[in-house]
Amino acid sequence: MNTYQQVGQQQDTHSKVIGYLLWIFGFTGAHRFYYGKPVTGTIWFFTFGLLGIGWLIDLFLIPAMDREADLRFTAGPIEYNVAWILLAFLGVFGVHRMYQGKWITGLIYLLTGGLFLLGVLYDFWTLNTQISVRNAERNNGR
Hints:
With 142 residues, the chain is mainly α. It has eight helices and no strands. The chain has helices at 16-24, 30-34, 38-51, 53-72, 80-90, 95-99, 103-116, 118-139.
């Protein structure tokens, strides 16, 4: 039985280390997107972390955001950390989609620059949910 399938143990879907690394660029909202908070991530992006004040406060909120993400999202064979790193650095090439097994949309992203960057923006909003659904399907044998 894999770690993510053990009953009664909290799953660890997100990493505080990656959260803090993304926090360094927090004025862009990257850490908030990572922890499944796309609305505030977008607000941080357009306000430079609410003029830096929200960004500094988030230094202390990351452990709570990490715990909440661990409870909210489904663990499984697709690792959130790997997918987020692929999205952050290779999103326009669709590598994060290929990693999830979404080969057709991954190739479309590769040929269209992340579907003209709009697809990458969409994935910043929805990647956690996409992975959670894929993991739930795989955990249930679909």
